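quick one, 401 residues, struct below
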Amino acid sequence: MERAFRYRFYPTPEQQTLLRQTLGCVRLVYNKALAARTEGWYERQERVDYADTSAMLTAWKKEESLSFLTEVSSVPLQQGLRNLQKAFANFWAKRAKYPNFKRKHNGGSAEFTKAGFRWKNNQVFLAKCDQALPIVWSREIPPGCNPNTITVKLDASGRWFVSLLVDDHTIKSLEKTDKSVGLDVGITSLIATSNGEKINNPRHFKRLRRKLRQVQKSLSRKQKGSNNTHKARRKVAKVHSKITYARKDFLNKLTTQLVRENQTIIVEDLAIKNMIKNPKLALHISDASWGELVRQLEYKCRWYGRELIKIDRWFPSSKRCGNCGHVVEKLPLNIREWDCPKCGTNHDRDLNAARNILAAGLAVSVCGANIRPDSQPTCRAVAKNPKGVRKQNPQGQEAET
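---
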């Protein structure tokens, strides 16, 4: 299993000069290659691929104005071109937007393969650098695992990180258990489980929103291009980093607990990109980070021998009665509890959805059953706490509040 170990390090002045020069060269080569590929297609209708940009890089190094490209390792420059090729492949496959130019104040990264570094005595020596990187080893790399790729990153707040990608042979499957759980994601409760448990949404962005507003207001008052602007931009980046790391830390702990306790985990395959087009829910959905939650569940289930099942996004998990299977016609987001008009069972919206997700996922796992709603007459739910009807999400998704 491939696994990345990320550490912070504090480079010496000489290392920092070399690393900043490397990041600048990687950014320059990436942007020139992107401009060449864009110009070739829109002006001459020619498709420029990786081989062509690699030949361009050789020619650029021979130019007098770009001779500084030879002062850094060639490995991260080639890797930057490979990453650009991947970006275009994702664009052609409609998995991503058109590649953007890299900007200096966003930091940057440089990727070193085995030809660009040495791993000696559990220390990292980058190409053209005599001293080992002063890494803060917050956790040990498993014995016998040597890195095959190293990525050096400078974030927007000015902190240096190094990521070591290794083939971890120490990862072993957990003991099998007979527990299964269905998860219904939401905003007020981040997840509701089929076991009747609700995990509150910590709302990390809301907690630091006031501080972010203060530093952004301070940045807007600075003169553009001044040193004070640079300092204020770093303060804004630090607040964004706090939000990001707090969110990922919480999700890592939550997903690890779910994977350890359950053999089968079932979630909905939601179209989050469509759901955030709703202006009233976009901020809350982005802060909840449902996509990151599912992503972590995917690779942790793969690591530890668990099963993750995604059910169809159009399955009416909230509107289907978990007792008799009746599907109501409308269930606005402001209704958190409702009574089934057919059997009279009282339902908590989130817990009922989680139980339906569990049942549908197990049916798919066991017999491959179709989980799309059957054609049957529907009617309105009897609301327990009506507060006025709101329109449903225009994207057709069920976003919980």
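Residues 50 and 86 are 10 Å apart (CA to CA).
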